[in-house]
Structure prediction request, 345 residues.
Amino acid sequence: MTTFGTGNASDTASMQDIDTLIWSMTMLRVNLDPENPRTIWPHIPVIADECSVFYCVKKHEPVVQNGVFTEKASQVIEAQRSPQSWQPLTALNASNNGTNTGSQRPPPDRLASLEFHNDTSRVSRSDLMLVSEATGSRLTFNVSHAAVDSISYFFQNTLATKLKTVSLSSDKLSSLTNGWYITDDHSHRYEPSLSQVLYSSRDLAVTFSSLAASMSNALRRGADEKVDSGPDSEPVNKVVTGHKGVVTFFYRVEWPWIVVHGMSAVIGTFFIAATIKKNHGTQPWGSSSLATMSRGPLVQHMLAGTQTVKKMEAEARNERVVLLSKETNTSLEDLGLDPLQQPGD
Prediction:
């Protein structure tokens, strides 16, 4: 795998229209076939990717659904680099070795580029400004000269090594590379160290998207809370205005379900009250043979033929008797029956 990274849009293949470029990287990687691992060059397919990271303005839309907080970020296309930004504040007549000769000026693409360079970065510049009028009002987002140079320098030293020219004598071609990864059965060689991550990444676009998201999150968490108000002053807190989102739980009442439970309780209460009223004054009886045996001769036909007490009790439990008649209002004493009277007496 070989890579070529740059912060100058004019050196890219497909990012030349981005005027806020931080870093662009082109990667050529062989795509080994797992089903045919013994395939040798030049019969191995090659994958070419180019991804970039650049300054932009994004709109974050928070959404809370079913108690889960999610956020959708979209780029504000209307926010563009201001022509009045990133302007030199000192003379630019400098040669490539950094001495002031008054005869040479850096190329126009280098002057417009945000890439850190030993010559042009010595010149003081105004802030990089992104201006948006999408909401009807003019919004300006500034990035200081020091921040732009620091970020560019970090990318150069992290994702690239010393630029090399690789000559392909067989095809009479040459190419530039500042990163590579070589692997065989016994060793792995790479430069710089992050080439391992790029080589193991299945999708370079996803890797760069995660990198850009992490940078945005760092800024939103307050990575630039302190700013310098002057060369001899202490850093001061930066005032940021906006809206704070607080997660709040809302409960929706489903009245039909509550009505069902209420009706069940009301109907159950009414049923119990009706049962109590209808059976008021009734003397409770258990499953006992005494109720049948208390009727004496009136039930002798049922107990006839039984010879044991156990069998008599069993037959008596299965018989239904009325102790008191509501129609005649007769009591046991009025019947004049002897419970101990034997059949036939």
